Automatic annotation (TrEMBL):
It comes from Methanosarcina baikalica. This is Carboxymuconolactone decarboxylase family protein. Residues 31-109 form the Carboxymuconolactone decarboxylase-like domain. It holds the Pfam family CMD. It comes from the Archaea. Transmembrane segments: none annotated.
Amino acid sequence: MIIMEKAANEIKELKGFLPRSIAYAGQINEDFAEGIAGLYKAVWEEREGGLSIKQKHLIVFAVACSSNNIQSAAKILERLHKFGATKMEITDAMMLATWTGGIQHFTDFSAVILKEMERLGY
């Protein structure tokens, strides 16, 4: 269990919170939880010459928007705010999401995201 706690603490530090998937996996099997924590670490850790945390969040934001996962996009928007994303970076990501997901998805996600952007002060 100490290994799981260490992995959980690393992810909390990296992401700012413990993802529910790791907590749920820990209730099932410690090795499973460590595996999921390892996936989070591999994806979100900054590496020399790689994408920054902000860039990674911009990408997953665009993917969430383009797949019409509005609830996830709104949560990621909060993370983008924390990591200093500009209004232009966010709107560029929204336009890219429209390009890949289609105008209907833009219509669906834009109302929620624009309202959330206003709440966050963009």
